[in-house]
Amino acid sequence: xxxxxxxxxxxxxxxxxxxxxxxxxxxxxxxxxxxxxxxxxxxxxxxxxxxxxxxxxxxxxxxxxxxxxxxxxxxxxxxxxxxxxxxxxxxxxxxxxxxxxxxxxxxxxxxxxxxxxxxxxxxxxxxxxxxxxxxxxxxxxxxxxxxxxxxx
Length: 152
Prior knowledge:
Layout: H1 2-35, H2 42-79, H3 86-109, H4 120-141
């Protein structure tokens, strides 16, 4: 049952990170279009949001699942060695996971998957979506401070 809870917490966190990251991306692109004088009606905005959620899920969603899984696993190991708040550490690891995903995409895939992450602010917002997922994961796992284990 404990492993099932961890998996449910992970999927919930990834889903929140993905939805928020996708919304940040869509709104950034639409904002840039509006800055060029393009009028974007509300129905086009909603359609863009839905299209991005569906279109990004197989690629970016999967990358977030893998990246956050690794980050949260490493964080769980670190929590055994430190006295840092689990929520704080999971939040930081979510941020770093997305940072690594975005930085690794260019040299590995030779693409920048998200146009919105090409600038500093968009990049920060994407990483913040990972931090939000980490915050949720830490909260779902329970607010607690871990006592470091001795190396003896």
